[in-house]
Amino acid sequence: MAWDIEKKIYRKIKKYKNIVIARHTGPDPDAIASQIALRDSIKLTFPEKKVIAVGAGVSKFKKYGLLDKSDFEEFSNALLIITDVPTMERVDGIDGLNYAEIIKIDHHPCEKKIANLELVDDTSSSACQLITELILNTNLKINQNIASNLFLGIVSDSDRFLIAYTTIKTFKIVTKLLEKSGIDFVNLYDKLYERPINEIKFHGYLSENLEFTENGLAYIEITPEILKNYGVDTATPSNMINDFNYIKDVLVWTFITYDEKNNIYKINIRSRGPIINEIAAKYNGGGHKFASGARTNKESDIPKLIKDLDDTCKKYQKSISE
Ligand code: AMP
Q1: Ligand 1 pocket: which of 107, 292, 296 to mutate (most atoms within 8 A of CB)
Q2: Are 23 and 44 contained in the same domain?
Q3: Of the candidates 192, 110, 109, which has an alpha carbon nearest to the alpha carbon of residue 154?
Q4: In this predicted model, what pLDDT tens digit does every residue of 295-308 receive, in sequence order?
Q5: In what side-by-side order are the strands of the sheet with 211-212?
Q6: Shared domain check, 99 and 224
Q7: Could you list the residue range(s) of the whole structural domain that residue 251 is in?
Q8: Domain identity same for 310 and 286
Q9: Looking at residue 301, which CATH number applies to its domain?
């Protein structure tokens, strides 16, 4: 029962003096907003506690609030709370932390239990949806800033309530959040969607240069030169992958971005039919059934991945025509 787990999480938060909140590497707005909102809510409720949100900072996400330094000297015997991340390997910024217990709050599919207490629901639109429920169903406090972050995390991860795991429950929770906080949510969209002109031009480049297969796969390989030409970084394609939904005859689409600095291919994959996280898992990736990512440093993996995705589209087309 989620209700029961939420109460248990609240009791653990109440018990620990030192609390560290972490999320996945390469964060998106839901990951950042969920950890910052939870940190701020715990601090507001229990001002005497030491609570930090850790992980590498991303300058364009500073608008959600600042992260804390991973200086763990005073954080022995801490409670570690991880949000928006299914496995310990993908948790960012906890090297050297001596924690006593772990709580996981996540919406990714994951069979393996890794924490002492888990609030995991892969039907939830976002980690922020789960944090909102946790706050609204316990004595954790909320203010306008916390509510704004939670709202933006939900809107971002559900892609403005477009993605299939948006449910009636999502709308009910958002309604409660808006009623309780009274935030001016329409004006928050600027924070999420305003982009510099060079990103708009890069978006145009992606539209012009996507390749299409006859089975319904759209793909593009993005080189460091292209990123440089448009003045964007390797995180930019990830922020644009959802914009390529609803293209007629495209079932699966993928961006393959070579990160020269880290010698790794960052792969974003989205689907509106075939299940893709199993394919992502073959290339050191994972994620949701219809929204996955992968990382590989082998150039030879790229044509294999494209073929796997294309074959999946072909099989899917066949299965729905039978
Ligand atoms: P992205 O395309 O980066 O937005 O990621 C889509 C989904 O896949 C998110 O839920 C990510 O957490 C997940 N994901 C991305 N990369 C990986 C990876 N290397 N391993 C496991 N899951 C991933």
Answers
A1: 292
A2: yes
A3: 192
A4: 999 999 999 999 99
A5: 211-212, 217-222, 252-259, 264-271, 291-296, 285-287
A6: no
A7: 198-321
A8: yes
A9: 3.10.310.30
User: Which helix (DSSP H) or strand (DSSP E) does residue 124 occupy?
Assistant: none
State whether the beta carbon of 29 lies less than 6 angstroms from ligand 1. Answer: no
Ligand 1 atom having least distance to the Cα of 284: 19
Give the Cα separation of 121 and 104 in Å (integer): 11
Q: How many domains does the chain have?
A: 2
Q: Of 141, 167, 193, which one is at a domain's C-terminal end? A: 193
Where is the domain boundary, 193, 222, 241?
A: 193
72-86 pLDDT tens trace = 988 889 999 999 999
Q: Is residue 322 very low, low, confident or very high in pLDDT (cuts 50, 70, 90)?
A: confident
Are 202 and 187 in a shared domain?
Answer: no
**d(Cα 258, Cα 84) in Å, to the nearest integer?**
25
Residues 257 and 222: beta-carbon distance below 8 Å: yes
Return d(Cα 64, Cα 38) in angstroms, integer: 12
- Give 1-17 pLDDT, tens digit per residue: 688 999 999 999 999 99
Answer yes or no: do 258 and 301 share one domain: yes
Same domain, 73 and 96: yes
Report how far apart the first and last C-alpha atoms of the chain are (Å, whole number).
40
User: pTM (2 decimals)?
Assistant: 0.92
Residues 145 and 121 grouped into a single domain: yes
Measured in Å, residue 206 CA sits from the centre of ligand 1 at 20
- Per-residue model confidence as pLDDT tens digits over 183-224: 999 999 998 899 999 999 999 999 999 999 999 999 999 999
CATH number at residue 115: 3.90.1640.10
Protein residue closest via CA to atom 9 of ligand 1: 287
- Residue of the CA atom closest to atom 2 of ligand 1: 268
Which atom of ligand 1 is nearest to 87's Cα? 21
Q: In this structure, are 182 and 206 located in the same domain? A: no
**288 in contact with ligand 1, CB cutoff 6 A:** yes
Q: What's the confidence (pLDDT) of residue 38?
A: 98
